[in-house]
What does this fold into?
Amino acid sequence: MMRHNPDRDLLLGKKIDPRFAMPALHQALRIGIYDEFRAQEAYRAAMRRFGPVKPFVNIERSEGRHIAALASLLGKYRVPMPMNDWTDKIEVPADFAGCCALGMQAEIDNAAMYAGFLVYALPSDAVLVMTNLRDASWNNHLTAFRRCSGVAGQSGKGLLLAGLAVGAAALLYLGVKHDRARKLVPI
It folds into this structure.
């Protein structure tokens, strides 16, 4: 019998589904740790290709700390741990810059995911952990991947575009868009 995550589609969707038969906190914790499993495995795959090089070695360790923080909350709130089924499933680009660009996108998506969780009423300890994880992705990991991909040496345009991407992703996550009058409206 093959083991799997029965809520895999929810986990891969990276957003809370209010119609899903699970509290928002439980969804956020399961989705968050599943995404951290994926990120850790992606950075391990890059290290299998290029060796234990920065920024992958440092960020892979950091993902382990993120997993530990979320696992602690999963235990505290008695939320079942999703199965980590990412091992050896992630393909990475053949070139180092491509792996760095993949890391950039993963961290932008990760920051947007946590930003989306934070609009829900969650316990203060979960808010603190998710805020810290969002900020680590945005302020630390994304910066490191920008450096290794060569974006950091360019004008501030790269960071501006990344910031716009996180903002747009957060709005899409929330199911809203700007209308012509610059108001947020449901999608």
